[in-house]
Specification:
five-stranded mixed β-sheet, Alpha-Beta Plaits, four-stranded antiparallel β-sheet, alpha+beta, Nucleotidyltransferase, domain 5, 22 strands, DNA-binding, 4 domains
DNA sequence: ATGCATCGCGCG
DNA sequence: AAAGCGCGCGATGCAT
């Protein structure tokens, strides 16, 4: 592939800020740059890889500078390029051909938890420390020549640091991943999506009126509903004992007033109509996320198009996360919500949304040589429905006949692949069961579950853990609960017996944690190379497990932990990590192919959002799905499938 | 006041 | 112990 640029310009802006009310620590990048107060004091620029001097371009000279460069053939390099390139594009109309970003590269190469600020990177690489001069501009709208000179020095040093770090990072960095960084940043700096402000206003108004009316009818303040202790008081006054539960983490008693707490659900669906109404109102009042987000979307819509705030390599597995401080997360918008519907392609375009069907179970089946499962996928079967039929003893269960049960089976099957245990599974299924005293796990209960003495002793060893999971209150009797747990255990047992290759894969993972990730023995398995504290992936990137070591948990049992937060690692989790990481590469391969023809304007893990002119939509849709499912050479024989749709509105594209 | 941890819930 | 996993954010409670 020929390079889309002839030279790389490193850039760093210095801009006006005020720690009181105009600062990136209190505002999003989008808000800050689009604010009327925005002002660039200047920028340092340097042509990367040349002896040319680093030039400070003062604020008044910036417009002339940017119009004097052929950005169509020029790439830009910055640390946190989202900021600098947004200024270039939004303020000066300069559209660089390609974007390099040392912050993005740092996350991928060093991990997300270590910190990848320019100061930290300089220190870790033994480079001259980042300067401090910028503090003197706090609150200033104009700067003196002296300050400007100091700023220019400081800025030039940042440019130097960025280049030095880039030299170190770019050694061997896959071109495909550089293209993904460029793609991700352009989703933000070159926004295409529009927000339907009328729809957002309407939804906000209607919701507000509904809420106000409800509060008035009940004669209650919002705070009395929203706060846990205050709501408990309200219940007490009505002669209702506020329900409690034992916290899973602290072990302390706490109010069980969350939406999915069984006892809260009992009140919500109970016979006391006054109490039920209050509970309903509480849910309405507490669902603030949707309101806050709608308001944020509305605010953005009044400033311009929607910069999609995604963070390349935000997750261990290489998945994208929401960009920190962006205040909105495009990856967890409620399905079917008006927020999704308010996101639109510009006039004359549609959004082709394609997703990789069941990509994780497909990759797991391929990695573990689970041929029976691969054959189900090859025959275009529905493994979730098949598992659901086993789970619920409903032969012939389908997505159409039992959509909810199939959804439950889907979640169970995915969990099972990563080591989901029966107790946890049982408690998952119990969510929603109503009222009744907590059931205690004891020896007799274990025996009733049909586990032998040694197995029962193991459960008792993790008693606190299991007790908490089973201490979910129910309306069902002890006997019903027992039956329920037996059913849960039966399903888990069925899975582990039938998905034997997956269990064998767990075995191998356990061994590799010990021998390779810890012991350093290099081991190649299919498209993965296990070695000391890392697993190399088929795209040249790696899963990182820095400082992996064996520790003891609070019960004195041996366990593996890694990283600054002592994150636990064990077979089921490693299975998840490699599966998710490989699935992400299948996904990005498709994105890279699609992006050669159409702009990819967003991604949500197994889904890509592609901008297509109206006239090309019917052709583009199958083409996109086809590009997503080309067999990767590192996964020979894997059956892939993709599904998708097209609409001007994001929320209407997939049916 | 401010930071930090936990919970609950949204997505995959 | 074969323990589902990967995220971010708002509300809340507790410590500083």
């Amino acid at each position: 592939m020929t390079k889309p640029f002839d030279k790389i310009v490193t850039i760093d802006f210095e801009t006006r800020w005020d720690s009181k009310d105009y600062t990136l620590s209190k505002m999003t990048t989008e808000e800050y740059i689009r604010d009327t107060r925005f002002k660039a004091f200047g920028a340092c620029v340097h042509e990367f890889g040349t002896d040319s001097p680093t030039n400070w371009v003062g604020g008044e000279g910036l417009r002339e500078y940017f119009s004097g460069v052929n950005w169509g053939r020029t790439a830009v390099l910055a640390h946190n390029a989202q900021f600098d390139v947004s200024i270039m594009e939004w303020v000066y109309g300069a559209r660089p051909a390609f974007i390099f970003d040392t912050l993005s590269m740092g996350r991928a190469l060093r991990g997300v938890e270590v910190g990848n600020s320019l100061a930290k990177l300089a220190s870790d690489f033994g480079l001259p420390a980042k300067g401090q001069a910028v503090h003197s501009t706090n609150g200033l709208a104009v700067i003196t020549e002296d300050i400007e000179a100091a700023l220019a020095d400081y800025c030039a040093h940042d440019v130097y640091l960025c280049e030095e770090i880039f030299k170190r990072f770019s050694e061997g960095y896959p071109t495909s991943e550089l293209r993904l960084i460029d793609m991700t940043l352009k989703m933000y700096t070159r926004p295409q999506l529009e927000l339907d402000s009328k729809m957002l206003i309407k939804a906000l108004t209607e919701e507000g009126e509904l809420r106000e009316g409800l509060l008035q009818r009940l004669g209650i303040q919002e705070a009395e509903l929203a706060s846990n202790p205050k709501f408990a008081d309200v219940l007490q006054k009505l002669g209702v004992t506020p329900p409690t539960k034992v916290s899973k983490t602290t072990g302390k008693e706490t109010l069980a007033l969350a939406k999915n707490d069984a006892l809260f659900q009992a009140l919500l669906n109970g016979e006391r109509e006054d109490v039920a109404l209050l509970c309903e109102a509480r849910l309405k009042v507490k669902s603030t996320t949707e309101r806050t987000r709608a308001q944020r979307f509305l605010d953005i819509s009044q400033r311009g198009k929607l910069p999609v705030p995604l963070s390349y390599y935000g997750a261990l597995s290489g998945r994208w996360t929401a960009a920190k401080g962006s205040a909105i997360n495009m990856q967890n918008l409620k399905r079917g919500s008006f927020l999704r519907k308010a996101i639109m392609a510009p006039e004359g375009y549609q959004l082709v949304v394609g997703d990789l069907s069941q990509i994780e179970p497909r990759v797991l089946a391929w990695l573990s040589d689970y041929h029976e499962m691969l054959d189900i996928f090859r025959a275009d079967g529905d493994p979730y429905a098949a598992f659901g039929a086993q789970m619920f003893n409903i032969p012939g269960l389908t997505k159409v006949s039992h959509p909810d049960l199939r959804q439950s089976a889907k979640s169970a099957l995915l969990g099972c692949g990563y080591g989901l245990g029966w107790a946890s599974f049982a408690s998952q299924l119990l969510v929603g069961f109503l009222g009744a005293p907590p059931v205690r796990y004891d020896k007799a209960f274990a025996k009733a579950l049909g586990v032998d003495q040694a197995y029962a002793q193991k459960f008792i060893d993790w008693e606190d853990n299991v007790v908490k999971m089973l201490e979910i209150p129910h309306t069902c009797t002890q006997q019903e609960l027992l039956t329920h747990c037996l059913a849960a255990k039966r399903i888990i047992d069925i899975y582990r017996a039938t998905a034997h290759p997956v269990a064998t894969f767990w075995d191998m993972c356990s061994q590799l944690i010990e021998d390779s990730l810890y012991g350093g023995r290099v081991y190649e398995y299919k498209c993965l190379t296990f070695s000391k504290e890392r697993i190399e992936l088929p795209n040249g990137m790696s899963l990182l497990y820095p400082d992996l070591k064996r520790t003891k948990d609070d019960k004195g049992r041996s366990q593996w932990v890694y990283g600054p937060k002592a994150t636990k690692l064990y077979a089921g989790k490693l299975t998840n990590n490699v599966t998710q990481a490989v699935a992400r590469i299948v996904m990005t391969d498709g994105m890279l192919r699609v992006s050669k023809k159409y702009p990819v304007v967003g991604t949500v893990h197994d889904e890509q959002i592609v901008l297509v002119p109206d006239a090309e939509v019917s052709e583009a849709k199958p083409w996109v799905l086809g590009q997503m499912t080309l067999e990767p050479k590192y996964l020979p024989g894997i059956p892939l499938a993709a599904d998708g749709g097209a609409h001007r509105r994001y929320g209407e594209a997939k049916q």
